Amino acid sequence: MKQKTLTDQLGTTHTFQTSPKRIISLVPSQTELLYDLGLEDKIIGITKFCVHPYHFKSTKTLVGGTKKVNYRKIKELQPDIIICNKEENTLEIVERLREICPVWVTDIHSIEDNFQMITDFGQLFNARTEARKWNDKLAFALSDFKNFIATIPVKKVAYFIWKKPYMVAGSDNFITALLQLNHFENIYKYKGRYPEVAIENIVEDGDPDFIFLSSEPFPFKKEDGYEISNYTKKAQTVLVDGEMFSWYGSRLIKAFEYFKMLHRNISN
Known about the structure:
Elements: E1 4-7, E2 13-16, E3 23-25, H1 28-36, E4 43-46, H2 56-59, E5 61-62, H3 71-76, E6 81-85, H4 91-97, E7 103-106, H5 111-124, H6 128-149, E8 155-162, E9 167-168, H7 174-181, E10 184-186, H8 202-205, E11 210-214, H9 222-229, E12 236-240, H10 242-246, H11 252-267
Parallel strand pairs: 3-4, 3-6, 4-5, 6-7, 8-10, 8-11, 11-12
Antiparallel strand pairs: 1-2, 8-9
């Protein structure tokens, strides 16, 4: 590739003399996407939370988590680029990593943002054909899912992500965008991005039809559902796969099928 100037989703402009060949990814869903774009050999470092594909745990260097990284280990790997995300990684981490090499930051609030990220990675890593294939697959799956969901009525939902304190998905995040796509109205969408909530107020906060307890970042169990359901009049408590609602990138292709299954299960 010739010298290329590209702008990431935070509006930061980067100039690359050649396509980056040594990639560190600090975002689990984006690690999976990079793999699916055929870039396995270029990925040299990942986080301990990068669980897909499974074999990366034994073939790639672990450089910490998403909120705490080993700067020395990262520097020793001599990366050409580090992939971060505004929500997953802190500003402090991004700024310190910029002393090592260019840091590309994504910012995903919607499915449209997701398509843009895939296109950007295709240009950045000289993988345009694979990026186009993935965007075409996702566009087809999205259209198919919209047909599936068209006649399903809108229901109210509370989506819990943490316990002690209880925290939920609120406004302006990817989870809420996917809930909306699924015809679930988030009762907490006016309370900030990931607000703390008092479960004893859940009826007056919106009296949801469903309470979704995510498998991540807090691993909710059935017992947690019994506890929360004591405070609701009618809500059905459902354990949901957090990866399907919060991972962007290529994971969406599996998410659409998961959503269909979820709707069939909760309608029975």
